[in-house]
Each structure stands twice: as structure tokens, then as C-alpha cells.
């Protein structure tokens, strides 16, 4: 969302998930909203947001991420525009850290904790400081050593990558000065990964990348990274001796593989010259068996060759005499073999051999090797970390050591902070902020440092009351507040505590009432409360804003109208009180969408509505919420779920949609639904959806591309009228002629245009493809993706062989029990197949699909009365469908 595309139309968000909840017990999480790569890339040393040639977004390097250091340009002799590095522009600037032992970038993803990330740093010295002295330094990931950085010369680009399950809410990447020159950094990237990949088997050890090699492409090909790779990896070309390259140009569904291997990686491979020779990957330099690390080897296979009937490519993969794996590939299998190499095991090469009788030579597409990084240190207790970070921000404390974790590693702990290390998780026991120029009220946050024994805030300019909550700290022994400007009286609880072991030092606060006989006014009790409520609110706002800034910075710049603040639209605006009334105080929750929860409501006139509330922790955020409301109020069509009103009152923001009583199409087609949809109902649903899509594509100027057409986004109302929902990913383009390189994979696995995936080209035909998949679902009753014991199967792979046999009876949903006309089923199938041709250009415009579906419906009309299956033909039909996608329906029906 933060990329090239200027026209972002964020619209309806999954009202669909509403119904998921109600009609089946299972909650299907909405995948509306965020299909951004989610990457955060920081162009270190450059103070503006910018895009590279691929439209990939780089954040400005500012205080949002780092608080220290100086920025520089590298010297021009080191500019290398010919470099294969696509990130070349981003390497022209650096941030260097002359001060302090440890300097950190702090990355706050919206849900960092327990999620998996690929973190990559780049460094190019380029004589940025004109001193021609190349430094060497260390990197830490959080509280532990990551890697050492050294350079052969000033023009070397150093890249380090690590995959890590974050254990904290923040991800700190720290540069450590080891006395061998000033650390610096050129580029820092954070990419979210699936949580199930690149993980050490038994622990949360991060995996440091050693090598990531793509095999089988010609030497002149540049290396592969974003946008081909949506996980932020860089694939380098490699060769294996004694091998030959081969490749395929077939469209590849890389979603089939949880590693999201780029088509370019899957589509090329090497194989042995004959089935009795082997492939060897030399690993002697890659797997350091002398080190105290385990290693992980990932071997990626996609057997794109056609095999003769039932033939299996059976391979014997030998790491050592004791470590051996077997891989059997059927034609079109995608498979990643993960092998852990225990500490101290010498693997000098990996050999891949065909087992006797396989009949096919061994092959491999790509491999990666990672080293598990030991994690001797645990981070400080998270509440202590959060509290200290709050205090730091509340008082704008600029201390060079106050970066990264407060207690760990111990030698870099924060100045003035003392920790107890007797547990594996350190706790803060003392905070000394004497003479630190603190101003303003004394924050109640200090009392969140639960293990605090001494707190010294002496010689500052703190005002207001002493928070009574400090008395709750069980171990507090010394509170030194001398030399401030505190007021009010000493809280009773603190006075009591001072008789049982707490030393209170309060002199030098002329306006503080030290005796017990102060003027009693309620103020002193209320004020701390107000203060704490206020500081909480401020905190919440800061957290919210920083989250939002993070994700939506560019949208803010792009949708300048957002600055209007409050929504103004022709739709009806509701007050907070009205929303409470409509939803009966949010009595009936019917789902969770990208914004937040969705409630059932009823307007005064009795109309049922779905009320979607923007939650504070919303992933979509205010600006998208507002643009959604705005844009939804601009378009209307009977086959789009419509907006009834909105609420933007006080702190409540909600969108109110028409209520779709019958739920979503996916559920209606599922086996759980006893009232299976009749054939003519299915035809009408298809036509409705096509009409809605036609409106978006051809009725709107600029055209709107939905990007997430799928059966769970098709909702039906009481009278079985189908409407498209969840326009949350939609984009409108002012200029259809521009190339719309999409910077993120939009949409849902199973419905994604294979061509979009290869080219990143976003256009109407991607929606047509997804629509074709819905047609197949309607026809067959199958899901777009079926999970079988052998992996996942795409609906087109299920239909194709049957289609080749001309067997329409085997294709049509058996639950229709033959109650459909073969002619219209054929016609319908023909339309569906034309929509899902692999090349976009061969797919019809949705407007002609509308025409064809109407014809199809006309054929079926005689059956409308509902009875008889007399039209069923048992003729086995010949089909002239061919793989190329030029499909002509059989003439004999
Ligand atoms: C880096 O170069 C740009 C353009 O040449 C210039 O505007 C900028 O001031 C330079 N920055 C530094 C820190 O020298
Ligand atoms: C810098 O070092 C790299 C790696 O050793 C080498 O390939 C390159 O030629 C060197 N460049 C210069 C200018 O010395
Ligand atoms: C695929 O193989 C053909 C024939 O060997 C070759 O000309 C072509 O460059 C290869 N494509 C890639 C992407 O390596
Ligand atoms: C297979 O290839 C190897 C090496 O390229 C060669 O030595 C061997 O003779 C070949 N075997 C057959 C059966 O062609
Ligand atoms: C696998 O290969 C190893 C060595 O290359 C060999 O010793 C072993 O017998 C092979 N196993 C099978 C089942 O082919
Ligand atoms: C309290 O703070 C003052 C001023 O910093 C200092 O002189 C005094 O020694 C402190 N008292 C204790 C007990 O630490
Ligand atoms: C203390 O606060 C009062 C009012 O807030 C102010 O007038 C006074 O100058 C302050 N005293 C010092 C020493 O800062
Ligand atoms: C569309 O492109 C044309 C030509 O490139 C340009 O003149 C026009 O201003 C563009 N329209 C918009 C809305 O950007
Ligand atoms: C089709 O129907 C005819 C006549 O009803 C019958 O003789 C024939 O066996 C049927 N064919 C199939 C394949 O069921």
C-alpha cells in the first residue's frame, strides 16, 4: 500500500466474515485488508521516503527507527550503477555511529512478537567519511550476537540476512563498536515470513543465511529478488558441476509452496546428464562443522517435466553416511526438503543420486543453507522494557546508551539502569535519573517497574503530585526526589511505607507539603488519577499514531483529502448514541473483519444492518477507514454490498452496511449447507457477480480493480441476490495506460492470476481469472483449493483431466443430482475456462462474460419450474479443449 500506486481505493471490507461466524461455528479469518508484503525497508542515511525502479518502497531514515548517528553520502567513485544490486540507489547513503558503543535501529511491526521475519542489512563503505579507513564491527540481533562485519575493500557490498521468530514487540538491530572503526549501515530490511518456514527445529534460534542459490538459469540472468521474491530473499545464480540446465515457461503457482519460491526459481533446474550420475553441492566452505552451530539445509524441488504414466523421480540425497534422505517426485510436484545438520557433523558435499529403477536423472531447482545462531541472552522482562521506553519518550530522554534492550547484554546496559540478572530474564532494580533535566509531572509509569528498589529522580524540575502508586512497589527501598518542584502532600500510602523500610528523600521541594496537616482538598486525590488517565491516553495515542504512521505514511501523503479529518459524504451519518441504539449496545457480534468487530444492528425502520466498528488496534487504520467510507459513498450498484451509513463521532468510527442474510457463497456451496443451491440459482449468482464486476471495471471512471474476488467475498441477501463485498484491496487507476506494477501480492491463494504473479502486472483480467474460479466452484461445488493427503490441489487441476475426457457429468456438482441441462453446463464451463486461460490477453472482458452468462441462463430457463432431469444427456462428448487455452466447446451436445 505504500508503493507506487497512487490511487488507492480502499473500500468495503469483508462483511463476508460476518456470516462465516454465524452459519458455521468455524471462524474464517478475514484476509481482507493487508496483503502488503508487510516489508519495512529503511534507506539508511536518506531522509526521504523513496521508491526504487520496481516500485518498492523505502522508508526515510528518521527518528521513528533510530535516534543516534550521522548521515553521509558515499564518495562518487564508488557509485556503481552497473551493479547487479537493484538496491544500488539505496546504498549511496549511510548512517554511521561515531558515538556510543551500541547503536540500534528499532523496528516496530504491528505484531512483531511471535512472528517470523527475514531481516537483511546491507553495508557499502564507499569511503563515505573520506578517511579511507575501512571499519570492522559487530551486529547484534536484539540482545545476542548476530554476525561480524568486515570488508575486503571500500567497494564491497556486505549483505547479511537472518530469519527470526521475534520474541519481543520490538526488533532491535544493533551495531556494536568493537574498537576497529566506526560502525555504519546502508540499508535495513524487515520482511514478514510465514511462521512455519525457516525455523530451527527445537527452539527459537534465529537462522543466519549462508547461501541462497538458484540453479539452472543462464549465467547472464540477474539475480532474483523483489518483486519476483515476495519474501525478500535474494537468489544468486549457481551451477553444479556435471549438470545440465533445463527450464519451463509454464505458469507456476508459487503459492502452492509455503516457501513462496519465485516462478523464476521454480521454473529452472539442473539435472544430471544421465540417470546413473549424481549431482553434488559442495558445502565444505558453507557448513562449518568446527563451530558450535547446527545448520539447516533447504533443498527446493519442482519437477516440471512430464513423466510417463505413473513414473516417479526417486532420489537418494546423501549428506553423510549416516544422514540420508529420499525424495520422490511425481510430475508437477513442488517440494522442499529441510535437513538439520547437527553440531560438529562434517558435511563436505551433498550428493543427489537417482535410486535404481527411477529411470529419471536426479534434479534440483535451488538450495539454501542457514546457520542457527545461539542465543545465550534473554531480553529484559517485557514490562520493564516497555515502561522504560515509555519513560524515555515521555521525558524525551536522549542518552546514547538508551537504545536496544535496557539490561542485556550487560556491558551495554542503559546508563542509570541497574538490573538483577539472577534469573534468566533480567529485571530492572534501580533507576537513577539524577540531574537529567526532567520536566513536567512525575509519571505514574515509574510504578510499573515492579522490581524497583531505588528510584532517584533528584535534581530535576518535576512538578505535580507524587504518584501514590509508587507505594505499590513491593521492593522499593529508596525514593530520592530531592531538588524538584513537586506539590501537594505526600501520599498516605507512601508515608506509611516509609515507616516500614522505605527511605523517602523529599527535601528541596519548596511547595511540597511535608507535614500531615496540609489543606485537604479532593484535588490531590483526583489529580493523580487524571494524570494517569491522561498519560495513558497520551500513550495510547502515541502508540496508535506510531502504528498508523508506520503503515500508512504514504497513504497519508497520497490521499491528501484525508487531511479533511472527519468524513463528509452523502451517506447518512450516525452519532455514537445512535450506533449504540442500532446495535443494542453491541449485543450481537457477528464477525471480525479487517477493521475490527462486526455487529448486527437494526435501524429505526426495522432494516437489519451490519455495523463494522474500527477498533483502536485496527490493522487497516483511520485513513483507509475514511477513504473507504468516502469511496463507497461514490459508487453504488445492486450487485455490490452497499454502505448504509457511517459513524465518525468522538472516538467512535463505524461503517454500516446492508445486511446480507444468506451469508457468503463459499458457505452456501459447502457440504454444511443442507439447502444446496440449484443450478439456475447458481447461474443467477454468476450473472449477478459478473454484473457487479462489470460495473467496477467498465462502469466506474477510473476503473476499479477488485483484486480479491473469491467465493467468500460474494454475499447473498434474503432474496438470493448476490453482491460483491470486501473491496478493501481494490485499486482504481486514473490512467489505464500506465503500467500498474503491483508491489504486493493481492488476493487469495487459489484465485490469483498466474500471470499477475509472473509479471506483477495488475489489470482487470486478474479479476476475470478469479471470477472464472468462482464459476468453476459454482459448477463443481469444489473449493478453489482442496487439501488432500498429497498436498493442495487447485480446482483447475481437478477439472482439466475430466474436461479432456469430455466428461461433463463427472465435473458438475453431484449434489445437483443431474438437475441441470448439459447444454448450459457446457456453455458455463466454456465461459469458466475462457476466464482462466493462463495468459491474460486471451481472457474475455467481463462485459462479454455478462452477455455469455445471460445466454447460458436463457438455455436453462425451461427448467426454472424446477422439476425433471429430462434434459440430461448421457452422451460422452469429445472435447477439443487443448492446453494452449484455445478451447472450443464440443459441437455435439
Ligand atoms: C548527499 O548528496 C545529496 C545530493 O547530491 C545532497 O543533496 C546531500 O546534501 C548530500 N548529503 C550529505 C550528508 O552530504
Ligand atoms: C574488492 O574486493 C572484492 C572481493 O574480494 C573483489 O572482488 C574486488 O575486485 C575488489 N575491488 C577492488 C576495487 O579492489
Ligand atoms: C531456458 O532454456 C532455454 C533453452 O535451453 C534457454 O534458451 C533459455 O535462456 C532458458 N531460460 C532461462 C530463464 O534460463
Ligand atoms: C553418465 O554420465 C557420466 C558422467 O557424465 C558418464 O561417465 C557415464 O558413462 C554416463 N552413463 C551412461 C549410462 O551414459
Ligand atoms: C543412496 O546412496 C548411497 C550412497 O550414494 C548408497 O550407499 C545407498 O545404498 C543409496 N540408497 C538407495 C536406496 O539407493
Ligand atoms: C539524594 O539525591 C541527592 C541529590 O542528587 C544526593 O545528594 C543524595 O546523596 C541522595 N540521597 C541518597 C540517599 O541517595
Ligand atoms: C515551581 O513551579 C512554579 C509554578 O509551577 C513556578 O512558578 C516556579 O518558578 C517553579 N520553581 C522552580 C524552582 O522551578
Ligand atoms: C493520464 O495520462 C495522460 C497522458 O499520459 C495525462 O495527460 C493525464 O493527465 C493523466 N490523467 C490523470 C488523471 O492522471
Ligand atoms: C446412454 O443412453 C442409452 C439409451 O438410454 C443407453 O443405451 C447407453 O448405454 C447410455 N450410455 C451410457 C454411457 O450410459
Automatic annotation (TrEMBL):
Membrane topology summary: Single-pass membrane protein
Protein name: non-specific serine/threonine protein kinase
InterPro entries from the UniProt entry: Kinase-like_dom_sf, Leu-rich_rpt, LRR_dom_sf, Malectin-like_Carb-bd_dom, Prot_kinase_dom, Protein_kinase_ATP_BS, Ser-Thr/Tyr_kinase_cat_dom, Ser/Thr_kinase_AS
EC number: 2.7.11.1
Alphabetic keyword roster: ATP-binding, Kinase, Leucine-rich repeat, Membrane, Nucleotide-binding, Phosphoprotein, Receptor, Repeat, Serine/threonine-protein kinase, Signal, Transferase, Transmembrane, Transmembrane helix
Compartment(s) of residence: Membrane
Binding site for ATP: 612
Database matches in Gene3D superfamilies: Phosphorylase Kinase, domain 1 (3.30.200.20), Ribonuclease Inhibitor (3.80.10.10), Transferase(Phosphotransferase) domain 1 (1.10.510.10)
Pfam families registered for this protein in UniProt: LRR_8, Malectin_like, PK_Tyr_Ser-Thr
All copies of domain Protein kinase, residue ranges: 584-857
Molecular function as annotated in GO: ATP binding; protein serine/threonine kinase activity
Amino acid at each position: 500500500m505504500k508503493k507506487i500506486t497512487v490511487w488507492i481505493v480502499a473500500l468495503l471490507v469483508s462483511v463476508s466474515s460476518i456470516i462465516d461466524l454465524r452459519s458455521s461455528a468455524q471462524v474464517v479469518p478475514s484476509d481482507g485488508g493487508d496483503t502488503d508484503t508487510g516489508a519495512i525497508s529503511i534507506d539508511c542515511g536518506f531522509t526521504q521516503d523513496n521508491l526504487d525502479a520496481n516500485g518498492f518502497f523505502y522508508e526515510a531514515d528518521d527518528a521513528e527507527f533510530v535516534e543516534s548517528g550521522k548521515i553521509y553520502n558515499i564518495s562518487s567513485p564508488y557509485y556503481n550503477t552497473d551493479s547487479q544490486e537493484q538496491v544500488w540507489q539505496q546504498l549511496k547513503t549511510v548512517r554511521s555511529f561515531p558515538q556510543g558503543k551500541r547503536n540500534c535501529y528499532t523496528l516496530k511491526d504491528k505484531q512483531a512478537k511471535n512472528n517470523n521475519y527475514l531481516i537483511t542489512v546491507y553495508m557499502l563503505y564507499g569511503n563515505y567519511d573520506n578517511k579511507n579507513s575501512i571499519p570492522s564491527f559487530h551486529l547484534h540481533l536484539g540482545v545476542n550476537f548476530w554476525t561480524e562485519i568486515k570488508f575486503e575493500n571500500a567497494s564491497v557490498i556486505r549483505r547479511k540476512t537472518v530469519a527470526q521468530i521475534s520474541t519481543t514487540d520490538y526488533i532491535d538491530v544493533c551495531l556494536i563498536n568493537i574498537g576497529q572503526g566506526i560502525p555504519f549501515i546502508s540499508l535495513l530490511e524487515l520482511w514478514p515470513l510465514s511462521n512455519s518456514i525457516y525455523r530451527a527445529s527445537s527452539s527459537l534460534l534465529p537462522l543466519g543465511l549462508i547461501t541462497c542459490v538458484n540453479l539452472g538459469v543462464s549465467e547472464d540472468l540477474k539475480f532474483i529478488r523483489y518483486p519476483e521474491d515476495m519474501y525478500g530473499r535474494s537468489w544468486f545464480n549457481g551451477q553444479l558441476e556435471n549438470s545440465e540446465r533445463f527450464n519451463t515457461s509454464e505458469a507456476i503457482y508459487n503459492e502452492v509452496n509455503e516457501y513462496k519460491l519465485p516462478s523464476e526459481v521454480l521454473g529452472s533446474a539442473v539435472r544430471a546428464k544421465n540417470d546413473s550420475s549424481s549431482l553434488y553441492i559442495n558445502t565444505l566452505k558453507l557448513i562449518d562443522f568446527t563451530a558450535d552451530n547446527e545448520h539447516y539445509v533447504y533443498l527446493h524441488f519442482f519437477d516440471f517435466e512430464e513423466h510417463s504414466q505413473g513414473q516417479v523421480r526417486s532420489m537418494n540425497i546423501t549428506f553423510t553416511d549416516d544422514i540420508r534422505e529420499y525424495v520422490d517426485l511425481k510430475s508437477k510436484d513442488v517440494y522442499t526438503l529441510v535437513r538439520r545438520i547437527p553440531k560438529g557433523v562434517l558435511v563436505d558435499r551433498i550428493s543427489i543420486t537417482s535410486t535404481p529403477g527411477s529411470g529419471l536423472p536426479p534434479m534440483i531447482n535451488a538450495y539454501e543453507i542457514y546457520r542457527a545462531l545461539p542465543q545465550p541472552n534473554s531480553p529484559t522482562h517485557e514490562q520493564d522494557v516497555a515502561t522504560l521506553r515509555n519513560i524515555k519518550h515521555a521525558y524525551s530522554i536522549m542518552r546514547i546508551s538508551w537504545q536496544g534492550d535496557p539490561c542485556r547484554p550487560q556491558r551495554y546496559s542503559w546508563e542509570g539502569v541497574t538490573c538483577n540478572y539472577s534469573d534468566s530474564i533480567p529485571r530492572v532494580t534501580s533507576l537513577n535519573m539524577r540531574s537529567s533535566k526532567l520536566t513536567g509531572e512525575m509519571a505514574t509509569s515509574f510504578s510499573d517497574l515492579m522490581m524497583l528498589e531505588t528510584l532517584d529522580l533528584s535534581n530535576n524540575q518535576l512538578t505535580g503530585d507524587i504518584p501514590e502508586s509508587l507505594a505499590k512497589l513491593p521492593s522499593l527501598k529508596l525514593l530520592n526526589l530531592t531538588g524538584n518542584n513537586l506539590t501537594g502532600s505526600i501520599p498516605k500510602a507512601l508515608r506509611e511505607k516509609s515507616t516500614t523500610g522505605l527511605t523517602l528523600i523529599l527535601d528541596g521541594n519548596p511547595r511540597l507539603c511535608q507535614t500531615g496537616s496540609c489543606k485537604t482538598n479532593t484535588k490531590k486525590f483526583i489529580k493523580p488519577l487524571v494524570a494517569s488517565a491522561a498519560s495513558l491516553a497520551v500513550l495510547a495515542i502515541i502508540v496508535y499514531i506510531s502504528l498508523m504512521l508506520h503503515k500508512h505514511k504514504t497513504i497519508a501523503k497520497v490521499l491528501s483529502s484525508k487531511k479533511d479529518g472527519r468524513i463528509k459524504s452523502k451517506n447518512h451519518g450516525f452519532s455514537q448514541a445512535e450506533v449504540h441504539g442500532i446495535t443494542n449496545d453491541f449485543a450481537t457480534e457477528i464477525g471480525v473483519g479487517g477493521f475490527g468487530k462486526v455487529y448486527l444492528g437494526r435501524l429505526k425502520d426495522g432494516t437489519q444492518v451490519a455495523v463494522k466498528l474500527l477498533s483502536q488496534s485496527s490493522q487497516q487504520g483511520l485513513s483507509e477507514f475514511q477513504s473507504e467510507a468516502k469511496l463507497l459513498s461514490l459508487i453504488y450498484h445492486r450487485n455490490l454490498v452497499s454502505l448504509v451509513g457511517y459513524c465518525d463521532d468522538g472516538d467512535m468510527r463505524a461503517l454500516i452496511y446492508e445486511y446480507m442474510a444468506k451469508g457468503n457463497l463459499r458457505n452456501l456451496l459447502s457440504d454444511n449447507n443442507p439447502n444446496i443451491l440449484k443450478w439456475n440459482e447458481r447461474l443467477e449468482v454468476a450473472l449477478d457477480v459478473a454484473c457487479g464486476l462489470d460495473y467496477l471495471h467498465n462502469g466506474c471512471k477510473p476503473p476499479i480493480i477488485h483484486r480479491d474476488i473469491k467465493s467468500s467475498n460474494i454475499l447473498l441477501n434474503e432474496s438470493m441476490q448476490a453482491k460483491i463485498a470486501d473491496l478493501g484491496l481494490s485499486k482504481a487507476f486514473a490512467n489505464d495506460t500506465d503500467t500498474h506494477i503491483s508491489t504486493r501480492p493481492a488476493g487469495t491463494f487459489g484465485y490469483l492470476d498466474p500471470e499477475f504473479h509472473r509479471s506483477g502486472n495488475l489489470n482487470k483480467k486478474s479479476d476475470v481469472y478469479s471470477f472464472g474460479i468462482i464459476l468453476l466452484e459454482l459448477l463443481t461445488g469444489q473449493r478453489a483449493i482442496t487439501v488432500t493427503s498429497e498436498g493442495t490441489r487447485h480446482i483447475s487441476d481437478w477439472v482439466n483431466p475430466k474436461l479432456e475426457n469430455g466428461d461433463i457429468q463427472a465435473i458438475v456438482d453431484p449434489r445437483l443430482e443431474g438437475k441441470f441441462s448439459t447444454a448450459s453446463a457446457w456453455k458455463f464451463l466454456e465461459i469458466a475456462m475462457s476466464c482462466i486461460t493462463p495468459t491474460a490477453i486471451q481472457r474475455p472482458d467481463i462485459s462479454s462474460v455478462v452477455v455469455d452468462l445471460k445466454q447460458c441462463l436463457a438455455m436453462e430457463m425451461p427448467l426454472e419450474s424446477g422439476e425433471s432431469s429430462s434434459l440430461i444427456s448421457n452422451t460422452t462428448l469429445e472435447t477439443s479443449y487443448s492446453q494452449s487455452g484455445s478451447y472450443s466447446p464440443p459441437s455435439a451436445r
